[in-house]
Input
Amino acid sequence: MALIDKYATPKARLMVILQGLSPAELRLVLRFAEFLARE
Output
């Protein structure tokens, strides 16, 4: 259960997801984040 608690926060979950992405997917996510920031 400790593992679930560790990943309970949205930020921690996001970090786990980002670690699982390939470099190409990461670039796509970053570009999308920049686009949202400009809106």
Residues 18 and 29 are 9 Å apart (CA to CA).
